[in-house]
Automatic annotation (TrEMBL):
Residues 3-118 form the Response regulatory domain. Keywords: DNA-binding, Phosphoprotein, Transcription, Transcription regulation. SUPFAM superfamilies: C-terminal effector domain of the bipartite response regulators, CheY-like. This is DNA-binding NarL/FixJ family response regulator. The modification 4-aspartylphosphate is found at residue 54. The keyword Lyase does not apply.
Amino acid sequence: MIRVLIADDQGMVRTGFTVFLSSQPDIEVVGEAANGAEALERVAELAPDVVLMDVRMPVMDGLEATRRLMASARTRVLILTTFDLDDYVYEALRAGASGFLLKDASAAQLAEAVRVVAAGDALIAPAVTKRLIHEFARLGGPRAPTVKRLAELTERETEVMTLIAQGLSNQEIASRLVVAEQTVKTHVGRVLTKLDLRDRAQAIVYAYETGLVRPGE
């Protein structure tokens, strides 16, 4: 069972998510929180696998809660918001979120997003990746202090990392490189391990911040 905590300041939203997700055979909603600070307390108490985190909440917003959560817990965060804004996408991923989903997504998309994030993958739609790239272009230049770890990657791993940063799925990377999808999964796993990254979301941010991939390439 995938244990889920729902953090949203609107009670009706929490109830709706709880009712639907609880109907899924492999998902259990273990708790709710009305703000970011409460979410941190509930995570410490309940140790959920995934937190559905709203962005705009009182006391502490979802982005700050995500930053603090990533510093001390293994729980993955799926950001939920009604606001499709560039800065939210960028800040959510930099804060350590594993996914970004708008609240107008279908119920089926929500359940699948929870499963994807719980499995250790990142949920980043191509449109979100494009906005992230545009944000790096606006900020300009690499931001990471060192790129030494990139030297540890093999030529093929670097190639895979570059394609991940472009928002390609494992299946798409396999097609591009003419290799088996399982081979791509192996390469992705090695890339994340060597660079000490949690998932594809962090890999995309890392690739642009180190200058491995530059906007427009």
